Amino acid sequence: MQIVEQPDIFLREPTSEVKFPLSSEDQVIIDQMIDIMYRNNGIGLAANQVGYARRMFVMDTTSSKAGAMVFINPVIEKVAKEKLTEKEGCLSCQKQLVEVRRPIYVGLKYFCRHGEEQYKTFYYLSSRVVQHEMDHLNGKLIIDKDFLEEAEKEKEELNESYKESVRQAKERKE
């Protein structure tokens, strides 16, 4: 099993729901995904990034690399209004860093590998990874035009805001 890389069209296809109880194949794939994520210094990996079109991903944002979490049939149920733009990389889009604007937290409903429903709110880096992997499950990549356009729009808004602040400061001095 290896990482599927852009421009492979498999990455653009939405994934399908995982049935419970998990098959032995699903269990093995989850274990291999965790191993591949660690071997490639990743912090998240979606099943379709390894050629398996199912709605599941793994993630570990800890520095110890001993806390892999498994997310099956995940659904984002809540998102922050506040957003932050940061650079993201992707194991399927090697050597590319892209500025992506994302909510600073998300509430995620998912199933663990034992079939138990879970709900957790993720913040900052973990939130960004969850959203990045959810995009993969929906056939989207960080290099897609809408991400780039949104980041560019945010830059323009910040520039306009800065210009307005400067104009107001000059008016107060006069």
Number of strands: 7
By CATH's scheme, which homologous superfamily of the domain at 9-84 and 103-142 applies? Answer: Peptide deformylase
The main pleated sheet reads as: 5 strands, antiparallel
The geometry reads as: elongated
Order of helices and strands: HEEEEEEEHH
Radius of gyration based on Cα positions: 19 Å
Care to give the gist of this entry?
With 174 residues, the protein is of the alpha+beta class. It is 34% helix and 25% strand.
Primary descriptors:
elongated; Peptide Deformylase; alpha+beta; 5-stranded antiparallel beta sheet; 174 residues; 3 helices
Task: Describe the 3D structure.
The protein is 34% helix and 25% strand. The protein has 174 residues and is of the alpha+beta class. It has a domain at 9-84 and 103-142: Peptide deformylase (Peptide Deformylase). A five-stranded antiparallel β-sheet has the order 1-2-3-6-7, sandwiched between helices. It has a two-stranded antiparallel sheet with strand order 4-5. It starts with 23 loop residues before the first helix and ends with a helix.
